[in-house]
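Protein in question reproduced for absentees:

***
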Amino acid sequence: MTFHANLSAESFARAALCQFNEKTRYYLGGVQIEPCKSGPGALMIATDGNILVVIHDPEGFVTPDASAIIALPQSLMKMCKGDERLEINDDTATVGGLTVSGVTIKDATYPNWRVVMPKTVSTGAAQGVGFDAVLYARLAKAVTAPFSGKVQTVSIFGASPTDPHHMRGSDLNAIGVIMPHRGAPDFTAMPEFIA
């Protein structure tokens, strides 16, 4: 298979924040790149099983009818910022004038991420729902643009405390999903020391 993609480098870096970084589920150790089904552009999807981000690059391009799980070398990831474009041609990638071989295209099938994506955006607030603070911060960075390393304001919505919750940030082309943390303390009552 010949794989070619042209993507927002900064969006790819934000998506990569949500990928799985252990060897046990190697197929999650990259960013799924696929054509957008509903119009022009490309989608970048990443998950570690607890958080998921989908970022749409309206100007992006992916070989028609192709998708791939891409992991970039660390030297190239450092270049993925600003307005740079990321050009991937099979196992070679270019960004900011730097071309690197050794791009990993995972020989695996990416999980069907659409099945965990809530079908509608709930308008209910995530009251009394506990989230892992580290995962929350990573996902907040992934849905926020520009990628400055600083978390900006995010909104989070869910239908019930046990459902997946949507997270939206300043990048209107990105949506995140975070799973509630099971066994979180009950924060719905005011602590006695406030009396």
Notes: The first strand starts at residue 4 and ends at 8. Helices lie at 9-16, 74-77, 133-142. The domain at 1-195 is CATH 3.10.150.10 (DNA Polymerase III; Chain A, domain 2). The radius of gyration is 18 Å.
